[in-house]
Design goal:
Blueprint (H helix, E strand, L loop, with lengths): L15 H8 L2 H14 L9 H7 L11 E9 L2 E11 L2 E4 L4 E3 L3 H10 L8 E5 L3 E6 L1 H6 L31 H14 L9
Antiparallel strand pairs: 1-2, 1-6, 2-3, 2-4, 5-6
Helix pairs in contact: 1-2
C-alpha cells in the first residue's frame, strides 16, 4: 500500500496535519481511515481514528449533508465502524464502506469515556457491550468549528550555539586584537538590512 499516509506506521503516529490534509475531500478521508484500519492493532492507539471521525462532524468537513451517525460494533476481538448520514424521514446514506479495526470495542469505549471532549461535537447516543453509537446533528455540525491549527513559526525557533572550546584549546588574544576583530566584523555588517522590508 503506497500513499500519502504511509508515514503513519501505527495509529498513535496520526498527527493533526494528517487529519487536516485528509478531511478536505471524501476520497482522502476514506484513504486515511482505510490506512488506519489496515495498520490497526490492539493497544497501539487505534482509538485515535475517532479524531478523524469527529472532525467529520465539524465545519472543516463540508462534503457531508445531514446528521452524522456512527456505529462502532463489536466483531469478536475487532471493531466494525459504520459511518452514515441521517437525511430525515428515516433515510440514511452510507458515507464510507464498513471499516474493520483490529482492536476490541472496549478499547474505543475506554477512550471515549476518558477523553470525550476530544471527539466533540460527537455525542454518545447509546452504548452497550456490543455497540456504541455516536452522533452529531447537522445544526451542531454547522456550528462546531474544528480546533485551530497550531504550529510554531520558523521565525520563532532559534539555534543553539555550540559550547565554547575550553580555554586551554582557545588561542589567546590580546585586548587590542579582540577589539580589532569585533570592529572589523561590525564594519562589514549591514546594520540597515531588513528595515525597509
Amino acid at each position: 500500500m503506497t500513499g500519502e499516509f504511509d508515514h503513519i506506521a501505527r495509529c498513535l503516529d496520526l498527527q493533526e496535519r494528517d487529519i487536516v490534509a485528509a478531511i478536505a475531500t471524501r476520497a482522502r478521508t476514506k484513504a486515511l481511515l482505510a490506512h488506519l484500519a489496515a495498520i490497526s492493532a490492539p493497544d497501539t492507539g487505534v482509538a485515535k481514528a475517532l479524531l478523524v471521525l469527529s472532525r467529520m462532524a465539524t465545519t472543516a468537513c463540508d462534503w457531508i449533508d445531514g446528521d452524522l451517525f456512527l456505529e462502532l460494533i463489536a466483531a469478536g476481538d475487532r471493531t466494525r465502524v459504520e459511518a452514515v448520514t441521517e437525511l430525515g424521514g428515516g433515510l440514511r446514506e452510507r458515507v464510507f464502506p464498513s471499516m474493520v479495526f483490529q482492536a476490541p470495542l472496549d478499547e474505543f469505549g475506554r477512550a471515549i469515556a476518558r477523553v470525550s471532549h476530544m471527539i466533540a461535537p460527537l455525542r454518545v447516543r447509546t452504548t452497550s457491550a456490543q455497540r456504541i453509537t455516536l452522533g452529531a446533528t447537522e445544526v451542531a455540525r454547522r456550528t462546531s468549528l474544528p480546533p485551530p491549527p497550531i504550529e510554531i513559526s520558523a521565525d520563532s525557533l532559534f539555534l543553539r550555539l555550540p559550547e565554547p572550546a575550553p580555554t586551554s584549546q582557545r588561542a589567546e588574544r590580546s585586548a587590542p586584537e579582540l577589539l580589532r576583530a569585533v570592529t572589523d566584523a561590525s564594519s562589514t555588517a549591514d546594520v540597515d538590512a531588513g528595515w525597509d522590508d
